[in-house]
Specification:
The complex is a heterotrimer.
Chain A: H1 2-7, H2 9-34, E1 36-39, E2 42-46, H3 50-56, H4 59-89, H5 97-104, H6 112-122, H7 129-136, H8 148-176, H9 180-189, H10 193-221, H11 225-230, H12 242-252, H13 256-285
Helix pairs in contact in A: 2-13, 3-13, 4-8, 4-10, 6-8, 8-10, 9-10, 10-13, 12-13
Chain B: H1 3-35, H2 58-102, H3 110-119, H4 125-138, H5 145-170, H6 174-181, H7 186-197, H8 199-215, H9 218-223, H10 231-236, E1 239-240, E2 243-244, H11 246-266, H12 268-280
Chain C: H1 2-21, H2 31-43, E1 57-63, H3 72-86, E2 89-95, H4 100-109, E3 117-120, H5 125-130, E4 134-135, H6 156-162, E5 163-164, E6 167-168, E7 179-183, H7 184-187, H8 190-200, H9 211-221, E8 234-236, H10 247-258, H11 291-304, H12 316-324, E9 328-333, H13 335-340, E10 353-356, E11 364-366, E12 371-373, E13 379-380, E14 388-392, H14 398-409, H15 411-419, H16 442-447, H17 452-468, E15 471-472, H18 481-496, H19 502-520, H20 522-533
Parallel strand pairs in C: 1-2, 1-3, 8-9, 13-15
Antiparallel strand pairs in C: 3-14, 4-14, 5-6, 7-9, 7-10, 11-12
Classes of the chains: A mainly alpha, B mainly alpha, C alpha/beta.
Chain lengths: 286, 282, 538
C-alpha cells in the first residue's frame, strides 16, 4: 500500500502549486508592504511595526471592527437560523418543493453591488416600499439609511436576503438525509416535538450546521459590496466594514502600508475564528 | 393526529410558503417595475403598472441602443470568466479532493491540508488586489479575461476542494478497490470510476463556483479597463456624477441574473444533490 | 421537475427575445442637434492637424455615464467629427464614478500609461502636479497645429482651476459651482407671499440673498402642501449621504462665513488671514474648526430640519429628484439641476425654475482679529469637479491628445456642449453668458429646449456669482485632497445624523487633516498649497 500512498501526491500537488503561485506572492508582497513606508505605491523606507501600532490608536479602525463584528454576528446567526427554521418547516414531502427550492437559489446569483443600489430604492424613507409595508403594519417611518442603527439593520437584511437560501438549501439537504426510521422510533418514545428536535434532529444535523456557519463566517468577514453601494459605509462610518476601510485606505488613499497591516490583522482574526471552528468541526466529523 | 389539525398545519405551511416567496421575489419585482418607470417615477410610491404609473420602454430601449455592445460584452466576459474559473477550479479541486479523500498524507495531516485550502478563502481581497495588479501587469495580462479567470479560480478553488473531498469520501471505495485488483492504476480508477460517479456533484460544484465568480466585483474593477470588464463592473457604471441611475441598475441587474438563473434552473437538481452530499457526509 | 425547469427556461428565453424585439428605431441625436453640431464643427478653429496622426489611436479615461450621459456623452458624440478631422480615432474607457481615483491613480502610479487623456475632476490636481503626472496645456497654446481656444474667456474664479502657478495646465471643458434654485412660481405667488407675511411679519425675500433668508423661506414652506398633491411637501432638499458629494453643499454654504475680504484697496488679495478657506498658509493648520465653519455647520443643521430627514441618507440623485418632481421649494446645487429641470422625463418644473447666485451670510469671522464682523458677505464658489481633460505624462501620443482637447476647448464647440444640457457641460465662459456681458443669446438656449425665462435666470445667476461677486473661495488642490474631503464628508455625516456635535465633528476633521498633512510632509504641502492659492509669504 505504501506505493499507492506516495502516488496520492499527484492529486493534490497541482492545487497546491496553484495556490502557492497565486497567493504566496500577494501575501509576501503585502507583508513586506505592511512593514514599509509607502508613498504612491513606491516603498520609500522601512516602517517596522509602526503601521501595526498605528492601528491601536485609530478610533476609526476600532469603529469599523466593531461594526464588522456586529454585522457578522447578526447576519451569520440570522441566515443560519432562518435557514434552519425554513429547512425544518419544509422537511416534508410536498408538491412544488423543488420549484420552491430553485426559486430560492435566485438571490445567490444576484450581484451584491446591484443589490445595494436596489436597496436604496427599497429602503427609500419617504414612502419607499419597505416603509409603506411597515406603515400598513402600523409602524412609523423607519430611517433606514439615515440612522446608524437602522442602516446597520438594513445592511444585515440585504445580506440575510441573499444568504438565507444558501443556508436553507444545505440544511434542508442535511435534514432529508436523516432516515425516517430514526424519527419513527423517536416519536414512539416521546410525544414532544421539541424533544425530538433537541435530542434527535439537532445532533444529527449539527455537522452540517457547522459547515454552514463556517462558510458564512468566512464570507461575512469579507463583506464589502453591499455596504459600498447601499450606504457607502454611512451615516458617518456607522456601516463601514473592516474590508471597506482597508479598501479605502489602500486603494483610494494609497496608504498601502497601513492598509496591508490592517489586512493582516483581519486575516489573523478570521484565521483564529476559523481554526476554532475547524477544531470543533473535526471533533464532530471524525 | 386528527385530520383537522393536519389541515391547519397545511394552511400554516402554505402561509409560510407565500411569505417566503414574496420575500424572495419582491426585490426582483421592484427591479422589473423600476426598469419600466420614468426617472421621475422611481421614487414616487407606485408599484402597479398602468394603474399607479405609466410604464415606459424608454429605459430598455436606451440600454439596448446605446449600451448594447457594452452589455453584450459584459455578459460574454462574465460567462467566459465564470465558466473558465469554475471549470478550472473544479478540475483542480476534484483532483485535490480525491487525493484528500482517498489518501493519507504523512507530511501534513489531511485535516490540516483541508484547512489550509479553506484558509485561502480568508484572505481579505482588499489586501491582495494591489499585488495581483502588479503581478498581472508584469505578466501583461491586464484587461484580459485570463487574468480574471486566474484570480477567480484561486478564490473559488478552496470551496471546490472541500466539497469534492466530501463527495469522494461518500463514494463507496469498494468499486475502486476492485479496479485496483484488476490492475488499474490510481489515476485510471479516478478517471474511469470515481469521476463518473461524482458527476452530479461535479456539476453542482461548478455551479456554486460559477455563482461566486459571477458576482465578483473588486478584482474585476481593478484588473480590467474595458475589453474584459464583466457585468458587475458594467452595473457599477450606473452611478455617475448625476447620481445613481436606478432605472439602469434595474435593467442591468435583470440582464445579469438571466444567465446564471437559466443555468441554475436547468441543473438545479444537481445543485441540491451536490450540496446534500457535500455538506452532510463529511 | 425537468418539465418545470424547461418551461421556465423557455419563458425566460421568450422574454429575452421579446425584449430584444423591442429594439427598433435608433434614438439619440435629434436632427437639430446634428445640424447645429455640423455648423459648430464648420465654424470651430481646426488648427493644422499633422498628417502623421492618421490611423493613430488615443485612449481617453472618463467616468462612466454612457454615450448620452454627462461628460462622457460628448466624447462619443464628437468622435466621428474627430475622425473626419484627423484620420485618427480614440477609445473611450468608462470608469465607474466611485472608483475613478483608484483606477486613474493606479495607472499613473505604476506608469502603466493606459490613458492618454484623463477627463477628471479638478481635485486631482494636487496629486497630478506634485507627482509630475501631466503635461500642462500651456505647452501647446501657441503651437500652430493646435486649434485656438481662449483660456481667458473662462470666468475668473474658474481660471484658477485650469491653471497652476500662472500657467495653463488643463483644457477648457466643464464649469462647476453651486447656485440657489427655487420655485419661481411658488415664491412669487401673491397668496404665499401674503401668508408668509402673516406668519413671520416680514416680506418674503425673493430671491433670498443670505442663508438666513433661505432658512426663513424653507422653514415657512416645510410641511405645507404648497404643490397641492395632498401631502405635506419639503422646504429644502440636500444630499448628505457619505460619498454622495454632500460635503460640497457645506463647502458652498460655509464660504461666506469663513472667507473674509482683505483690508486695504484690494479686497481680493490673498493674505495669511484673508481670502483663505482651507489652511493657514504659514503653518498649514486647518481652519476647518474655526468659528466661521462652526457657525456654518449649525446653519446647515438648521436648514436640514426644514427638509425630509431622509435626505441624511440621500445622494445627489435622490435630492435632485425631490426638487425636480416638485416636492421641495429650494435646493442649491450645480448647473446640472438647471439642465435636468428642462427634461420632461425627469422634471415637472420646467418653466417654474428660479435661479439665484449662491447666498451670502449676514456676518463673517475675521481670522486676524478673531472677531465676527456683522456685515453681509458674498463669496463665489467653484465647488465641484469642473470635469476637464489633462494629458497624461505617460501618453505615447501627447500631441494628438493635445489636439483633441484644444479642439474640444474651442469656443464654438465648448459652447455647443454647454447649450445642449444632456452633455453635462455646464456654462462658465464669456461666450456662455448672455449679452451684453457675454456673447450668447437666449435664443441659443431656447433652441435646445430651454424655457426662455428658466434659461435667463440660470445663466444670469452664474454670471452674477462668477462675474460680480466680490470674493471667491479657493479650491483645494494639494496632494491628499480627495482623502481629506472624504474624511470631512464622513465627519459631516456624523454631525448631521447626530452622532457627534458640530464642534466635535469639525475638531476631529482638523485632527485627521493634521495627521494626513504630517504623513504626506507638512513643508511640501505648504509649498504646494501656497502656490495653488497664489499666496506669497510676506
Amino acid at each position: 500500500m505504501k506505493k499507492r500512498r506516495e502516488k496520492g501526491n499527484v492529486f493534490v500537488i497541482p492545487a497546491i502549486i496553484w495556490i502557492f503561485v497565486f497567493t504566496i506572492f500577494p501575501l509576501v508582497y503585502s507583508f513586506r508592504v505592511s512593514i514599509s513606508r509607502v508613498s504612491y505605491g513606491k516603498i520609500t523606507g522601512l516602517a517596522g511595526l509602526s503601521n501595526y501600532i498605528r492601528m491601536f490608536g485609530d478610533y476609526r479602525f476600532w469603529g469599523t471592527l466593531r461594526f464588522t463584528l456586529i454585522f457578522v454576528l447578526i447576519s451569520v446567526v440570522a441566515t443560519t437560523f432562518l435557514g434552519l427554521g425554513l429547512a425544518l418547516v419544509f422537511n416534508r414531502k410536498m408538491r412544488g418543493l423543488k420549484f420552491f427550492r430553485s426559486l430560492l437559489t435566485m438571490p445567490l446569483f444576484t450581484a451584491p453591488v446591484a443589490l445595494g443600489y436596489l436597496g436604496v430604492m427599497m429602503f427609500y424613507e419617504e414612502n419607499g416600499p419597505v416603509n409603506v409595508l411597515l406603515k400598513y403594519l402600523g409602524m412609523g417611518k423607519v430611517p433606514w439609511l439615515s440612522h446608524p442603527w437602522w442602516a446597520t439593520l438594513a445592511i444585515c437584511m440585504v445580506d440575510v436576503w441573499q444568504w438565507t437560501p444558501f443556508a436553507f438549501i444545505i440544511l434542508l439537504a442535511g435534514l432529508q438525509s436523516i432516515s425516517d426510521e430514526i424519527y419513527e422510533a423517536a416519536i414512539i418514545d416521546t410525544s414532544s416535538g421539541w424533544a425530538v428536535f433537541r435530542y434527535i434532529t439537532l445532533p444529527l444535523v449539527s455537522p452540517v450546521l457547522g459547515t454552514v456557519l463556517m462558510l458564512r463566517l468566512v464570507d461575512a468577514f469579507k463583506v464589502f459590496d453591499v455596504p459600498f453601494s447601499l450606504t457607502s459605509g454611512g451615516p458617518g462610518t456607522a456601516t463601514r466594514t473592516l474590508t471597506f476601510y482597508i479598501y479605502t485606505q489602500g486603494l483610494r488613499n494609497f496608504d498601502l502600508g497601513y492598509a496591508s497591516a490592517m489586512a493582516y490583522f483581519l486575516l489573523a482574526i478570521t484565521m483564529v475564528i476559523g481554526m476554532l471552528f475547524f477544531r470543533r468541526y473535526r471533533e464532530l466529523y471524525e | 393526529m386528527s385530520k383537522k389539525r393536519h389541515g391547519i398545519v397545511e394552511i400554516l405551511l402554505w402561509i409560510v410558503v407565500v411569505i417566503v416567496v414574496l420575500w424572495v421575489i419582491s426585490p426582483f419585482y421592484w427591479a422589473v417595475i423600476t426598469s419600466f418607470k420614468k426617472p421621475s417615477d422611481v421614487f414616487r410610491l407606485s408599484s402597479i403598472p398602468w394603474i399607479q404609473f405609466q410604464p415606459t420602454l424608454n429605459n430598455w430601449q436606451t440600454e439596448f441602443n446605446q449600451r448594447g455592445p457594452e452589455i453584450t460584452r459584459g455578459l460574454l466576459n462574465s460567462v467566459t470568466i465564470a465558466v473558465g474559473a469554475s471549470v478550472l477550479a473544479v478540475f483542480l479541486g476534484s483532483l485535490a479532493g480525491y487525493g484528500l479523500a482517498r489518501h493519507r498524507y504523512t507530511k501534513w495531516r489531511n485535516q490540516s491540508m483541508s484547512f489550509w485550502f479553506l484558509s485561502q478563502r480568508f484572505l481579505p481581497p482588499a489586501a491582495t488586489v494591489i499585488p495581483f495588479f502588479l503581478l498581472m501587469k508584469s505578466l501583461k495580462l491586464l484587461d484580459t479575461q485570463i487574468a480574471l479567470i486566474l484570480v477567480n479560480t484561486t478564490f473559488v478553488m478552496p470551496f471546490a476542494v472541500l466539497i469534492m473531498r466530501d463527495m469522494f469520501k461518500e463514494l463507496p471505495v469498494e468499486l475502486e478497490e476492485a479496479a485496483w485488483v484488476d490492475g488499474c492504476s490510481r489515476w485510471q480508477s479516478f478517471v474511469r470510476i470515481a469521476l463518473p460517479l461524482a458527476a452530479p456533484a461535479l456539476v453542482a460544484t461548478v455551479i456554486i463556483c460559477f455563482a461566486f465568480a459571477w458576482n465578483e466585483f473588486l478584482f474585476a474593477l481593478v484588473l480590467t479597463y474595458k475589453k474584459a470588464s464583466p457585468m458587475t463592473v458594467v452595473i457599477a457604471g450606473t452611478e455617475h456624477t448625476q447620481g445613481v441611475q436606478f432605472w439602469y441598475v434595474s435593467t442591468r441587474l435583470l440582464l445579469a441574473i438571466i444567465p446564471p438563473t437559466i443555468l441554475a434552473l436547468t441543473v438545479q437538481k444537481y445543485i441540491v444533490r451536490g450540496l446534500t452530499m457535500g455538506a452532510v457526509k463529511g | 421537475m425537468r418539465k418545470m425547469s424547461l418551461i421556465v427556461s423557455v419563458l425566460v428565453i421568450l422574454g429575452l427575445l421579446f425584449s430584444f424585439s423591442l429594439v427598433w428605431a435608433q434614438e439619440g441625436a435629434s436632427e437639430l442637434e446634428i445640424k447645429t453640431a455640423d455648423a459648430a464643427f464648420e465654424a470651430a478653429d481646426k488648427g493644422n492637424p499633422d498628417p502623421a496622426w492618421k490611423g493613430q489611436k488615443l485612449t481617453i479615461g472618463v467616468y462612466s455615464a454612457g454615450p448620452r450621459g454627462a461628460i462622457s456623452g460628448p466624447l462619443y458624440f464628437w468622435r466621428p467629427y474627430f475622425e473626419k478631422l484627423t484620420g485618427a480615432t480614440y477609445d473611450i474607457v468608462e470608469i465607474p464614478f466611485a472608483e475613478l481615483r483608484e483606477k486613474i491613480f493606479t495607472d499613473l502610479m505604476t506608469g502603466t500609461g493606459t490613458y492618454d487623456i484623463i477627463v477628471g475632476p479638478s481635485w486631482f490636481y494636487g496629486d497630478y502636479i506634485s507627482n509630475d503626472w501631466i503635461i500642462p496645456s500651456d505647452k501647446y497654446l501657441n503651437d500652430p497645429r493646435m486649434p485656438k481656444w481662449e483660456p481667458e474667456s473662462i470666468l475668473p474664479p474658474l481660471q484658477e482651476l485650469y491653471s497652476w502657478g500662472g500657467k495653463w495646465v488643463g483644457f477648457n471643458n466643464d464649469h462647476d459651482g453651486q447656485v440657489l434654485y427655487y420655485r419661481r412660481d411658488i415664491l412669487n405667488d401673491p397668496k404665499w407671499q401674503e401668508e408668509f407675511k402673516k406668519e413671520t411679519g416680514k416680506d418674503m425675500p425673493v430671491p433670498p440673498k443670505t442663508w438666513e433668508e433661505v432658512y426663513e423661506i424653507t422653514k415657512f414652506f416645510h410641511g405645507k402642501d404648497w404643490n397641492g398633491d395632498g401631502e405635506p411637501d419639503y422646504g429644502i432638499t440636500m444630499h448628505l449621504k457619505v460619498a454622495g458629494q454632500g460635503f460640497f453643499h457645506f463647502m458652498a454654504l460655509s464660504a461666506p462665513y469663513v472667507v473674509s475680504p482683505a483690508p486695504g484697496d484690494d479686497p481680493k488679495k490673498v493674505t495669511r488671514y484673508h481670502n483663505v478657506y482651507w489652511f493657514d498658509p504659514e503653518t498649514m493648520e486647518p481652519l476647518v474648526n474655526t468659528p466661521g465653519f462652526v457657525e456654518a455647520l449649525n446653519m446647515l443643521l438648521k436648514l436640514s430640519k426644514t427638509g425630509p430627514s431622509a435626505m441624511w441618507g440621500w445622494s445627489l440623485g435622490e435630492a435632485w429628484d425631490a426638487f425636480l418632481r416638485g416636492k421641495a421649494v429650494i435646493c442649491f446645487s450645480w448647473g446640472d439641476v438647471g439642465s435636468l429641470s428642462q427634461l420632461p422625463d425627469q422634471s415637472s418644473i420646467k418653466g417654474k425654475l428660479g435661479v439665484a447666485p449662491i447666498p451670502g451670510s449676514e456676518k463673517y469671522y475675521d481670522l486676524e482679529t478673531k472677531q465676527w464682523v456683522e456685515k453681509r458677505n458674498f463669496v463665489a464658489n467653484t465647488v465641484g469637479a469642473s470635469w476637464h481633460g489633462v494629458i497624461s505624462k505617460f501618453s505615447k501620443n501627447p500631441d494628438l491628445a493635445a489636439y483633441f482637447l484644444s479642439w474640444q476647448a474651442t469656443p464654438t464647440i465648448n459652447h455647443w456642449n454647454v447649450v445642449w444640457g444632456w452633455t453635462g457641460v455646464d456654462p462658465g465662459t464669456l461666450y456662455d453668458l448672455l449679452q451684453p456681458t457675454g456673447k450668447s443669446t437666449i435664443e441659443e438656449y431656447v433652441a435646445t429646449g430651454y424655457d426662455a425665462e428658466d434659461a435667463k435666470q440660470f445663466v444670469s445667476a452664474y454670471e452674477e456669482m462668477w462675474y460680480k461677486y466680490p470674493l471667491k473661495q479657493s479650491y483645494l488642490r494639494i496632494p491628499g485632497t480627495p482623502e481629506m474631503w472624504e474624511i470631512w464628508d464622513i465627519h459631516l455625516s456624523e454631525a448631521v445624523t447626530g452622532q457627534v456635535t458640530p464642534e466635535e465633528a469639525l475638531n476631529r476633521t482638523a485632527e485627521d487633516w493634521n495627521a494626513i498633512i504630517d504623513r504626506l510632509g507638512r513643508d511640501q504641502l505648504k509649498k504646494i498649497y501656497q502656490e495653488a492659492i497664489g499666496y506669497k509669504p510676506e
